[in-house]
Design a protein that fits this description.
- The protein is an alpha+beta fold.
- The chain is built from eight helices and four strands.
- Helix content is about 55%, strand content about 10%.
- A hairpin with a 4-residue loop joins β3 and β4.
- The protein starts with a strand and ends in a 12-residue tail after the last helix.
- The mean pLDDT is about 95.
């Protein structure tokens, strides 16, 4: 098996890569990385100097592919199957990449800001930064609420890279800043994502680790 994914099943950006792999039944060897283990962290850094996962290792092509969006597009280009994650039409491909960036930058990053702050000791927390992140999430939810008024996926009828990005962003985002009653379309979209077999599989594999998710600050 030429592909190895270096990842952790709880890590939100790793979900994005796993969804793409499962969506097209791409065979790969999973390598779970514990960043708290110095040897495992060093091995990851040797592959990708930034030391963050996911990282895809393609021995057949001699490639190391980091960063979830690039990784998904690489899979789509070189190991794709029945689900085309980047549309062939250039304009739709551009819009797909835009929505992927939207979910990563304006849902995923503020969600992570809130979650990481929960891990900080008392007296080291960033209340102002967390409130900024909550405000960004509320703005993003309002935009998604309008986008998803017609149902379907992020790009309409086709499941794409944008949905791979949306699934972990919205799942963990709802934990960080709950959708509330005003975002029924967002909530319905998340339920559709959770029911997608590729996403459901990723979530099932992450279940044993959910107790590690930081809870609300006391």
């Amino acid at each position: 098996m030429s592909l190895t994914l270096h990842f952790h099943p709880l890590a939100s950006y790793c979900w994005k890569a796993l969804i793409a792999l499962y969506e097209n039944d791409i065979p790969f060897t999973p390598n779970l990385v514990d960043l708290g283990n110095p040897a495992e962290r060093a091995a990851l850094v040797k592959l990708w100097g930034i030391g963050k996962f996911p990282v895809l290792q393609d021995d057949a092509r001699g490639e190391i592919v980091p960063e979830s969006s690039i990784l998904v597009e690489y899979l789509d280009r070189h190991h794709g199957g029945g689900t085309r994650l980047i549309p062939a039409d250039p304009d739709r491909a551009l819009q797909t990449r835009l929505r992927d960036r939207f979910y990563d930058l304006y849902v995923h990053l503020p969600m992570q800001k809130i979650m990481v702050d929960r891990l900080r000791p008392e007296g080291k927390r960033d209340a102002y930064g967390v409130e900024e992140a909550r405000a960004q999430l509320r703005t993003s939810y309002a935009m998604i609420e309008r986008q998803m008024a017609g149902g379907g996926w992020a790009m309409g009828a086709d499941f794409t890279l944008a949905d791979c990005a949306a699934a972990p962003s919205l799942f963990y985002g709802n934990m960080a800043e709950p959708f509330g009653d005003g975002h029924k379309n967002v909530a319905a979209y998340l339920e559709r994502l959770k029911a997608r077999p590729s996403v459901a599989r990723v979530m099932k594999e992450a279940e044993p680790y959910f107790q590690m998710v930081p809870k609300e600050n006391p």
